[in-house]
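Troubleshooting entry. The earlier prediction with NDP gave an output that would not parse, so I re-checked the input for stray whitespace and re-submitted. Clean input:
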Amino acid sequence: MDFRYLGNSGLKISEITYGNWLTHGSQVENDVATQCVRAALDEGISTFDTADVYANTVAESVLGEALKGERRADLEIFTKVYFPTGPGAKNDTGLSRKHIMESIDGSLERLQTDYVDLYQAHRYDTETPLEETMQAFADVVRSGKALYIGVSEWTAEQIRDGVTLATELGFQLISNQPQYSMLWRVIEDEVVPTSSELGVSQIVWSPMAQGVLSGKYAPGQAPPEGSRAADEKGGADMIKRFMNDQVLARVQDLKPVAEEAGLSMAQLAVAWVLQNDNVAAALVGASRPEQVAENVKAAGVRLESDVVSRIDEVLGDVVEKDAGKTAETAPKQRMA
Ligand code: NDP
């Protein structure tokens, strides 16, 4: 495993990070979830990402249980706050001081730890003054409940405003967590240059486009049993953006490119996001331990420039690059 610094900080994280969205507490049973976490640890993954909202808090509990007994200093544990959890009462959501202060305590209890390494604003809250949110994060850091602060799916301008306030308040905002893959490159024109300038890294989600870039979904055919696209508990709905025959056919055409690079398609997808210097980690999910073992082999891989160009040629116009999508896909108001 290779490790990278997270933003302009001294914290090192594994460049392949394990995330448990849609799997723990939902698609996969707890014993398989634990096997995936064990596989991740065995393969040298030290960084784990979750969120209070995943499986409505259950994903944090499953991860906390699976990591029990590990030496805490060897792990980097990340979680998030913003989306509603619990009964959905008026203050059970967003980035108000009240919701942040209550949420961090709930997350720490479920994760069975005294602190998280990174506490992330899961989205930007248009209803809370940014000053209030940042002051609350400053207090969370000062109380020792989180070591660093990150955000997720913020625009370049929001990241700049956040970093300015964090600097004034004396804590480190060091990461953004956006979607990024060969198929979804909307961060490249604005978020990445601004983040690089400010010392903020990207920890990128769905580098395999939720499994689509593994090549296992053939155009015109039903998804394989047990796959996310066949998961009626939530996965099928989440992945449907990529499940159209034009995208799936282009992805099939990447097979010879992967073969020539000596990688599986899944490894090619993960290696591709890691070629971007502003990316500190590829956040991969897994429904089976064997997937973890396969995907970690993307660590440390350098792709030749002709491989990168051929990927662009093959995928052509199915790639989404519009920088406006970050703002467009963000919630316009709190979800409660
Ligand atoms: P990926 O793109 O890595 O997709 C993972 C899924 O792809 C697996 O669950 C599995 O699904 C399939 N897969 C993985 N490896 C292979 C393989 N080798 N061969 C075939 N299929 C494979 O990432 P996710 O979409 O799971 O997201 C990763 C993490 O990112 C999340 O857990 C979460 O931590 C974070 N995230 C953050 C968000 C945010 O808003 N900040 C939003 C979404 C995710 P299956 O076997 O079921 O088909």
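This one parsed fine. The domain at 3-328 is CATH 3.20.20.100 (TIM Barrel).
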